[in-house]
DNA sequence: AAGTAATCGAGACGGTACGTCTTGTCTTGGA
DNA sequence: TCCAAGACAAGACGTACCGTCTCGATTACTT
């Protein structure tokens, strides 16, 4: 868990940066506190669930003040979002081998592989919060949902151009079918997502 | 809105009944309060969103005490669930004309037609709450999700038996694809669900 | 300590009453919580001093919620004020024997006797808060200071009418001299107030 | 206001000095920051009252860092104390003309004259803080209260030696009566202190 | 008609977390 | 060594709701 989060921030990503003044006075943001908060949030979510995940609890577990959390994130959901995106970054490549079916299958398999127990809890919480807090919903969309949707859309557009897409489907709807299935399993049935399902989806979406 | 809710309870449905003692002494449940609470919850959701929908607010708007709400529902989400199911009941028939494609299309079109603005807000809130409160999640599942999934499953099983299902698909996965698309649009993209989409789905899921 | 506070409220005094509606619905104010809060405040003041006397601490010690305190008092200072006035009520009679010197001495001696260690801490805190929060200052004035000033003023007015007041003095200034000495000792020198001082004041203020 | 404070520091007074090393390396204390802090504190007190006078507010108004304030003063009260003593220094002479009544009256009149609106707010705040923070109370006592009490004590001791004190009074109690009246007016009644009152006090304390 | 029993609106209760504010300390880069 | 800037841990503030618990009043069924 900690290991995962420590990997984030390799490239100076500045997830919630403030200004662009090149030289600034004053103490700099504590990278240690940032990581402690992300880790604490992730751990507490696993232990107690999102309903009992509180800003106070995160700060206490992380050994920081609440103000430090509020200074850098709007609330608990954004902390979780950063933790998840930091984690998920490496796992979503965009294969382009020329074999559309292989590419699609690889993408789906990688996506499904990233949606496993520690992360699924966070994803479900984030999607829930996105419904409740529209402002967070937009950030969630921009940060997590859209990039993945666009990646798959690009992949499927290539297939479409090559005439490989199943009849009647557009890249957009095919994307929605794929992610719809993913999220429906996460949110509604809680069934696992495996390679077999990736195969089935590949066959259904392509000719 | 109020009209919709007033229609519910035609058959004595006892949404959250207590015991089965046939005759009991004492004052009987106030139907007026029940309706006022359902209406107030629905209105407040539309006005302020789920984040600001509170038990206190509902009771105040309905002109009842909080205890009256807690006596008959576990919490705000269950009030909303009853309001939605009362509304949605009439709209989900299970057509069986022999024409699988027509049946499926009719089912999907009816389902999509029910998922329109006043209701979609409630559905999104309910799905969110189901992620946060697992106990409610089960009730949500049993009351709303499963019945619809089973209806579509039955319909698609008939098609499957007749060999009309698209290759590789089982009735279960086809159901997930359909509802996955529905919920993905509700939760993630907020795009409308129209008859055209029902046609596309029908063509994709059937041969 | 507790004993003192329990004596308060003998006559239904209703220190911070709300409305005058004779019949009210709803649960009634908990006398137990009220007493627990007054006692907790008094004890914590003695143990930790006014600087560390917090609303949270009082509520925690009293075993009540913070809201219960805020429902009935504006803040910690008003709790202390009620505790002190409940305590001090019995100790301030207004003697009228005809012997002005004896009356004055009795009044001062009783006043000084009430200003002893457990109470003095509270009085100093109240006077301090009165300087910092003008709104509380007015309540402090109306509840505690003025009644005592008026009592002594009445006593000294009788002496004045009988020509017993020291030359140049009015009842008002004589009152200010007496209470000025009292408060100066409480706030500035922390010297004790004894019967000897009452005698000296009596001789100085009367002929 | 600013003018008053700028006059302070004529003799190098070092209000809260550190060590006695005569010559030290490094940047020297900024007299500009010191004055800005004193002025800002005084202004903010007048504008917002002691309750809203914060270290952060003072530093922001003064254009300094908080650390600069904490480096030279223990807290906001000590800043105010320095501002007041700087102001009050010139106004309290110790007359000795041989005419005890004239001397006393002059002393009282000068003292009362110094206790006027801009300063009274600070005095009331200081006396309040002295009750709440005992450590500051001692500094307040040593810096402001005792010197004045000793001055008046000295004056009255001369009168006592000459047999001019009112019967039963000692220089100490007479001093307490005078300052008690002063502070009671400042803290409790907020009535002004005028020359007439000085006359009355002179007549009461002397034969 | 009297008694019993459950519901109702009202609202106080003990809790918990919120998001903000301020404290006093620490860490920067510059003077 | 000091300074302005500003992040930090800590902790209290006053508020908002939660779900529970009295209350007196009302409404039904049972005797």
From TrEMBL, chains A, B, C, D:
Pfam families: TetR_C_11, TetR_N. It comes from the Bacteria. Residues 31-91 form the HTH tetR-type domain. Gene3D superfamilies: Homeodomain-like, Tetracycline Repressor, domain 2. GO terms for molecular function: DNA-binding transcription factor activity; transcription cis-regulatory region binding. InterPro entries: Homeodomain-like_sf, HTH-type_TetR-like_transc_reg, HTH_TetR, Tet_transcr_reg_TetR-rel_C_sf, TetR_C. Residues 10-19 have a biased composition (Polar residues). Keywords: DNA-binding, Transcription, Transcription regulation. This is TetR family transcriptional regulator.
